[in-house]
Amino acid sequence: MSMIVENKVALVTGANRGIGKSIVESFIKYGAKKVYLAVRDLDSTKELEDKYGNKVVKVKADLSNTESIENLAQQTTDVEIVVNNAGIGNPQVTIGKEVEKELQKQLDVNVFGFLRVANAFAKILEKNKGALVQMNSVASLKNFPHLSIYSASKAASYSLTQGLRADLKDKGVNILSVHPGPIDTEMAAEAGFDNPSSPETVSEGIVATLKSGDFHLFPDEMAKEVEQAYQSFSENVVLAE
Question: Which sequence ranges form a coiled-coil region, renumbered to this chain (predicted)?
Fold first, then answer.
């Protein structure tokens, strides 16, 4: 299902920096009517507010808290595009004393947080014939050993994204699964990736892919290499009816 950003009301979690901030800017660039900046710290969006004025509205959102996300949905019933961008991740191998604690932490935000968003906004997006965009990763498809825990959480979120597509596509809701490689963010720097792509590569790709109606987006150079290897499985298994 095709969706253009122009004249739409959008909501972006983790909108205050990195990829989230770039998504806000690309949406406004392509004519979004309003973008909700869903963040934990309401003081962190000043730059976007100063730049875009009443085109942006800051709202409180904590993906680790079900009540917070339910309240978020109640405040934003006019939303047509929800981008679940917020997530956490840091270098963590599989063997270690803190591995269970770290996995629980990342699952709570990257997986259960996504479920909280999806469940809170499903009826709204169904009513508004909208779209749900989930920020997954190439790590959804391959475990990167130094990011093993993050990779596991993103594999789970990608599986759930497929489930949401099955649940909502016949109800008029477009689901988009985004799979970036290394992007120029704090996380990529901590993980030690060389030559990361710009956040705009992701945000511009989201705008284009919403319009095309595709389920997957592999936006950057590394991600496109993964896409080439994954394409046959995607077409014949993941997207098979």
Answer: none
Q: Render pLDDT for 5-44 as a digit per residue (tens, 0 to 9).
A: 999 999 999 999 999 999 999 999 999 999 999 999 999 9
Asked whether residue 1 is assigned to any structural domain, the reply reads no
Q: Does 2 fall in a domain?
A: no
Residue 103 burial (10 A CB sphere; 0-12, 13-18, 19+): middle
Strand partners, 60: 39
Domain of residue 89 covers 9-238
Whether 4 is covered by a domain: the verdict is no
On whether the pTM is more than 0.85, the answer is yes
Condensed to tens digits (0 to 9), the pLDDT of residues 84-134 reads: 999 998 888 899 888 999 999 999 999 999 999 999 999 999 999 999 999
The total domain count for the chain is 1
Alpha-carbon Rg for the chain, nearest whole angstrom, is 17
34-39 vs 9-13, strand pairing mode: parallel
Q: Where are the alpha helices (DSSP H) in 44-135?
A: 46-52, 66-75, 99-110, 112-128
Which phi and psi (to 5°) does residue 178 adopt? -100, 130
Separation of alpha carbons 36 and 56, rounded Å: 6
CA dist., res. 10 & res. 76, Å (int): 9
Q: Looking at the domain assignment, is residue 79 inside a domain?
A: yes
> For residue 105, what is the domain's CATH number?
3.40.50.720
